[in-house]
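User: What would this chain look like folded?
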Amino acid sequence: MFKKVLALIALAGTSYANAQDSTSTPLSISGSVDAYYKYDFSKVPNIPTSFATDQNSVSLGMIDIALKKSTGKASFVGEVSFGPRGQYQSIPNGDNVDDNSFHIQNLYATYAFTDKFSMTAGYMGTFVGYEVISPVGNVNYSTSYLFTNGPFQNAGIKANYAISSKVGLMAGLFNNKWNVYQADANQGVNTFGAQLSVTPIEGWTAYFNLLTGYSSGTILDLTTAYQITDKFKLGLNVADWSAGEGADDTGYTGVALYPSVALTSSIGLGLRGEYFKTKKNGGVGFGPAADESVTALTVSGNLKAGGLTFIPEIRFDNASVNSFYKKPESLTLGTADTKSASQFSLAVVYAF
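Assistant: Here's the prediction, encoded as structure tokens.
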């Protein structure tokens, strides 16, 4: 009798496992590799935004590998990258001395309690902003001042609720600082984040984002994109960040517009126009001095062949005061002597 009970238990366990497997998706592996050549016409690396920083050099971006899988109501995402763009330029251990050998871009798990409600915990690419670290997700290869000075990742736990097919809400608690795997032990999980997503009409989605905490400060962000026609898309990012820990009028405000057009199925053209201003008491790591601004115009081509994309790009930045260098001698002296900078780059990106 006891053997029969064991056999029934084993059979039930096998049936349950098979049922679980039947709702399981295969392990998905995706990613990208990229490299670039950049030339600043002043012969110095002038523009202080993320990535594409090397002057007159064929240089590496990164190799990025993402793993995804779901079983029943549970799923996970793990993404790791190697190379400058995915390592120290993406912040963790980012001191240019300890050039860490890899960087975890995403590492989180999700459980869907219902079709409308789920929770996610781990280290996640930020929900704030229009641009992302992986070049596959951007039309432009260089990045905006808003991207460089905003959060890249947030570690914490969040809840997602689909109010309707057109409205969604996310709220979560995150570590006290952006872009780090571990919280300060004295502050812990003290940053609040929320997102309201709205799809007013087909092809148009808007995200209203808030991230606020004692250490990280408060960022208010609007990110929206509208696929106006099959060929023309218009994106917009508006953000305001006020530094934390009682800082008064410290941080930045900015706006970036992203029109793009698909000329053919394999040729696209994208433009980014950005205005970025540092608040009167400064506090910006990359960009103009306190109470100054910069306007940047970037034009990028996207030439596609299978998984391969060539991105020729030209960029013009113009600041309200001398913020750039005319020649290598100016950089050596540390004396900014021009308001403008311009550069050309050619990037190759392969997505798999």
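The helical segments are 2-22, 145-149, 328-333. If you want, I can go into more detail on any region.
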